[in-house]
Amino acid sequence: DDAIAKRVEEVRANLGETAEAVVQESTARFQRFEEEEDSREALATITRLASSDLPQQIRVLVQTLLHVGHVPFYCQTLETNGISYIDGMFDIADLSEEEHMLMPILTRLLHMCGIGSVPYDQVALRVREYTGALYFYLESGSTLMAESSTVSALVFRMKCLAGDTADALELLSDLLRHAALDDVERLRAVMNDLAASFEANVVSSGQMYASQRACACFSPILARNEMWNGLTQWFYLKKYDIDDKESLALLGERLSALQSKIIDASRLSIHLCTDENLVDEARKHVEKFVSTLQASSTSYVNSMNSSGSALSVPILGEQIELFRIPASVGFTAQVVKSAQAYDPMQAHQSVLGQLITTNFLWDRVRGIGGAYGVSAFADMMERLFIFSSYRDPRIEGTLGDYRQSLEAIASYGIDSSIIEQSIISLIGREMKPLYPREAAMIAFRRAVYGISDEFRAKRRSWIVSTGSEELKAAAEQLLSSMSRCSSIAVIAGQTVLEREKKVSQRLKSVTVKSLL
């Protein structure tokens, strides 16, 4: 900052009075341009879609629920050009907290390990030979029915040519059952990879980590998601000395035991999407794949889509966490409870999020505040409303803008033409053409999370019916929720944190935790 100030003085001294006046006038004109709104006449010259252009019917993805023994098997036919898309979820809801902490390591290791005595480089060649893609990730969330009904799963996604389906599924089965998770050298590479990914992402995509952290206090399932993908996982990984081979060997043993526990047919749900003329043959290969997986001899019951114990965690007041990273800007997230997923109010809050993101918040947080980006949206399944800013030089000012955006709508409503454009944007996301791989996972997730086409049609009608009065009520409900309980997480550079703590009463007493 001192260097910048010094350079500014040097430039000013070289400009002279006349040139400096020209620069000041130019700056003032630009500020007026930012602050002045376009006239109705100017806006009317831009051609726009109207809500009447939207299709009346929702897009339906047809699939059939079959069973391979006790394993739910969803079958979907689409034009896939001879490719089979095979997705599966292993239910891991019953794992202990320590086992859940290990899952991100296990998931990454499945991409980077050998199979039995076969080294990783040869396994990688087989993956490229038989598949177009094979990867694993963790999935968690609340279902549509209730926040107490949740999904926690290890997911695999694979695509392959019809002629390679048998070999690809055999390879997948071998990897799931016999992955060499106790290979210390590969485990060391994975730990390095996870650390490097976090260090790169937390500085470039800090809004994601801030949002996850702010969400985590609202329910155990959101806390689990943050445990897997957020700052909690980073703090856990930092405890390991990757140069301590003995420690890594013990970790490998625990991962192998965890693998034996979760790779179980009784935990599995599976989905197949392929061409209609290929589906019968592909089904046979999927059935054979399922038969290669052990089925627990205990009375384990797959809990996906059934009632669990993830009841909401009540928080009162305002919870704030501050984290320091080596950066000159920050990322500020604030989360409050929204209406329920099956309440029309939440559909109106979805429109509200789109509207304030592209209007009020865009102008205030990005245009005036200087952030590179800002967003507000309703998370339908988690019953939350999430604000976040991206590469933001402010904290308190941005938090104030979040609240003021709601207050402005609650007090004055909004012009119907702006509402219409927000509705079109929301519905347009669902109308975009889908690749078969996208359609396959969307259909699978709808089945697992209990999202029916009947509900989707109702929600579409609720969104389309949103008007100024509905938005005022939606904003009032969120303001009430914000006053009752909200969670704030900030990831920012030292200079930003020090400056903001001096001027913000609510930030002054909050302890700053270092991430890197």
Which superfamily, in CATH terms, is the homologous superfamily of the largest domain? Answer: Metalloenzyme, LuxS/M16 peptidase-like
Number of helices: 19
**Oligomeric state, counting identical vs distinct chains:** single chain
Helix content: 40-55%
CATH architecture grouping of the largest domain: 2-Layer Sandwich
Q: Please compute the radius of gyration using only Cα atoms.
A: 26 Å
Give a written overview of the molecule.
The protein folds into 2 domains: 64-291, Cytochrome Bc1 Complex, Chain A, domain 1; 314-514, 2-Layer Sandwich (Cytochrome Bc1 Complex, Chain A, domain 1). 52% of the residues lie in helices and 18% in strands. The protein contains 19 helices and 12 strands. The chain has helices at 2-35, 40-44, 97-110, 120-130, 165-178, 184-204, 206-215, 220-229, 231-237, 245-262, 279-291, 344-358, 360-368, 396-412, 416-431, 436-449, 453-464, 468-484, 494-503, and strands at 64-68, 71-77, 83-91, 133-142, 150-161, 268-274, 317-324, 330-337, 373-379, 384-390, 485-492, 512-514. The chain starts with a helix and ends with a strand.
